[in-house]
Design a protein that fits this description.
Blueprint: E1 4-8, H1 13-24, E2 28-33, H2 42-50, E3 56-58, H3 64-74, E4 77-82, H4 89-94, H5 96-116, E5 121-127, H6 151-166, E6 173-179, E7 181-183, H7 202-211, E8 217-220, E9 232-233, E10 235-237, H8 238-253, E11 261-266, E12 272-273, H9 274-285, E13 291-294, H10 309-315, H11 323-340
Parallel strand pairs: 1-2, 1-4, 2-3, 4-5, 5-6, 6-11, 7-10, 8-13
Antiparallel strand pairs: 9-12
Helix pairs in contact: 1-2, 1-8, 3-5, 5-6, 7-11, 9-11
Bound molecules: uridine-diphosphate-N-acetylglucosamine.
Length: 343
């Protein structure tokens, strides 16, 4: 019998790509999302890709009783992938209380229920943001944390700490996956990043500008101490990232994990600047982007990219897509999105 996995934040960007990967790899996925920044309509596309319609629950994880109902209905949930969270760095600086409450209360609720309902595997959506404003890259999992640069980053640091403290007192095994910068879309062009709110991450801002949904875009600072003055990040294709979640579950279910909690970096292992990303987009698509240089964005770190050797060695994971694939698939998605979602 296929193992049942509850995916929180399933109708969001990484969540929906992970549903596809889980189903394709033989897991039975259950979707849960409060749809505050996504729509369950994405499950139609997931069905079109995989042939399977996931059961879905429109539930806010901060509501303990509603979330408990989902566990009661499904029984036998063997694994959780916990994506659901607010995730905009800049926004979190202006709304810290909302970020702390949402990201931490939801985590506490899902952990309590995982314990009560004997979940075996818990995969947490963490972020390279936990490293803070590091002075050198690549960073590996042992790189000491600096003060997180934003309340969003604080919630991810606290989330990992909570998991580190709680999990050893339970029968659950947990994996914290530290994503670098997820971007791109499924190559079939049916799913991609499609938030209800205006996207704030670089790649969707680029594609929305190129298609004319935005008049122009701003590069947040060109006076950093980097090779061209703009910030450096490690952009990782969302399908590569999605697959890592399936491998993390496999790792726990096949009893390869000895420690209660493991941590893995997921990036491509190389840093690109904002201006390099813009140039790659222009080169790959032939579009010319209307951008201007603006001030720095509060909460941004200067430069960070990953060492992902541990994920390669332990999980057998390595990225299959490069930055050009990221730009190509993001652009295909942006063009399709206009047609599919009629926006
Ligand atoms: C941050 C986290 C990342 C997390 C993501 C979730 C860090 C180092 N990284 O990504 O782990 O997954 O939030 O949202 O904390 N930019 C522009 N113009 C724009 C938009 C972005 O110049 O209109 C620049 C930003 O200043 C940044 C880069 O593009 O230098 C990437 O920004 P973004 O895509 O928002 O991701 P991060 O903030 O790096």
């Amino acid at each position: 019998m296929n193992k049942k996995i509850l995916v929180t934040g399933a109708t969001g960007y990484i969540g929906s790509h992970t549903l596809v990967d889980l189903i394709e790899q033989g897991y039975e996925a259950v979707s849960l999302d409060n749809e505050s920044n996504s729509s369950k309509d994405v499950l139609d596309a997931v069905k079109e890709i995989t042939g399977y319609r996931c059961p879905h629950h429109t539930v806010d994880l901060c509501d303990y009783n509603d979330t408990r109902e989902v566990f009661l209905q499904h029984g036998e949930i063997k694994g959780i992938i916990h994506f659901a969270a607010l995730k905009a760095v800049g926004e979190s600086v202006g709304q810290p209380l909302r970020y702390y409450e949402n990201n931490l209360v939801s985590l506490l609720n899902i952990l309590k229920l995982s314990q009560e309902f004997n979940v075996e595997a818990f995969v947490f959506s963490s972020s390279c943001t936990v490293y803070g404003d590091v002075s050198t890259s690549p960073v590996d999992e042992n790189t000491p944390w600096q003060e997180a640069a934003s309340p969003y980053g604080q919630t991810k640091q606290m989330g990992e700490k909570i998991i580190e403290n709680v999990i050893p007192t339970t029968n659950i095994k947990a994996i914290n996956l530290r994503y670098f910068n997820p971007a791109g879309a499924h190559p079939c062009g049916l799913i991609g990043e499609s938030p209800r709110n205006a996207p704030q991450n670089l790649v969707p801002v680029i594609t929305e500008t190129a298609i004319g949904k935005r008049k122009d875009m701003t590069v947040f600072g060109d006076d950093y101490s980097t090779r061209d003055g703009s910030c450096i990040r490690d952009y990782i294709h969302v399908c590569d990232l999605a697959h890592a979640h399936t491998l993390a579950l496999d790792y726990i279910f096949s009893k390869k994990q000895n420690k209660p909690v493991e941590v893995f970096n997921l990036g491509i292992g190389d840093g690109l600047s904002v201006l390099e990303i813009i140039r790659t987009f222009e080169e790959v698509t032939g579009e010319s982007l209307n951008y201007r240089i603006g001030p720095r964005r509060p909460g941004d770190v200067v430069a960070i990219f990953s060492n992902y050797e541990k994920a390669k060695k332990e999980l057998g994971w390595s990225p299959q897509y490069n930055v050009k694939d990221i730009m190509k698939t993001a652009w295909i998605w942006e063009k399709n999105r206009q047609k599919l979602l009629n926006i």
